[in-house]
Backbone:
């Protein structure tokens, strides 16, 4: 791409550094901003800048928060000794939106992924292990994605906690509600058969 | 979506104001920035802010430029009396990349679109009409998209120039090079038959 303006080229380049945004899309976005009132760009720039500078992470669960201890961790009505282990804040938001979970969270900040150069020391695993070892936790629920990296991370944490008295569970994998059997992949379908549950339990949860 | 942080919510909101970026994508982009070094956000914010503040438009063709008269308009080797009328700078870049055009451009900044509240006075039509009336232009080439809005804009400019001596052309519509006939839509195929060209001319241009 040949640009007639260095300023434009630079803005497009920086925009295209975002994931899933190629040069063409970046150009479209930047030209859109140029067509809108200047205030829109100012607001965007300010919101991103302020977030990056002032962002805080909850001291207990490492989720993004505007205060030292986030709303969930500081809520006395939440069950204090059940901790759900998730990858990032999107998973917290997704689980919260189900309204089915009343315990606390622990945000790892990613998954162990040697391919991307992410090891255990890059994640908030140490604080989780400490938390469990100090006896505050009765049950851990792994809610990482069911990928190689997710499974590796689960297993790593599990090994770290060997000998520690804590219940460890992982969220159920299976056919999604309303999904058709014929379109499910074999692994998921296989797991949902191996991990079948008594019909009476299913009746209760629906 | 329920956010645990006002700063995050605000950044996601501003990001989702961009075209084609919904709340979920905006959240993904913002979380990506949080995971990257702070410098990446700083560079993005700076590039967008500087562009919006310092952006200049060429006084002759209204294309984006870092100087008063853009490189194309100030190039004495370009044919000075042929002007290609386009919607925005992306079209200039697309046509330039063909290497087939040696004339000048006129960037309208959009198309007449009553549905979006864009009238002729919102576009750089007046300066184009002036330019043509002053006798600087021998041939105008309309290169707007072949939509209702593009056709309306072409026709509006055409009417404004009634009685003015200037050749007016529009870029050819037809089956794309390497496209299969059976997949072409009827309107395009119909136009390509009506506007058929002598085979000898086709031989020359290929």
Residues:
């Amino acid at each position: 791409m040949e640009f007639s303006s260095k300023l434009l080229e630079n803005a497009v380049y920086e925009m295209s550094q975002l994931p899933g945004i190629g040069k063409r899309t970046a150009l479209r976005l930047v030209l859109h901003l140029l067509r809108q009132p200047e205030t829109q760009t100012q607001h965007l720039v300010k919101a991103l800048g302020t977030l990056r500078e002032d962002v805080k992470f909850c001291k207990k669960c490492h989720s993004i928060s505007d205060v030292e201890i986030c709303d969930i961790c500081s809520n006395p009505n939440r069950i204090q000794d059940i901790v759900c282990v998730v990858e990032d804040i999107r998973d917290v938001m997704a689980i919260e939106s189900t309204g089915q979970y009343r315990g606390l969270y622990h945000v790892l900040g990613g998954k162990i992924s040697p391919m991307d150069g992410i090891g255990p020391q890059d994640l908030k695993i140490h604080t989780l292990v400490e938390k469990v070892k100090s006896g505050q936790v009765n049950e851990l629920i792994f809610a990482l994605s069911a990928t190689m990296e997710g499974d590796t991370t689960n297993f790593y944490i599990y090994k770290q906690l060997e000998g520690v008295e804590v219940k460890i569970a992982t969220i159920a994998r299976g056919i999604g509600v309303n999904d058709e059997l014929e379109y499910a992949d074999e692994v998921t379908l296989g797991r949902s058969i191996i991990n079948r549950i008594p019909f009476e339990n299913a009746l209760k949860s629906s």
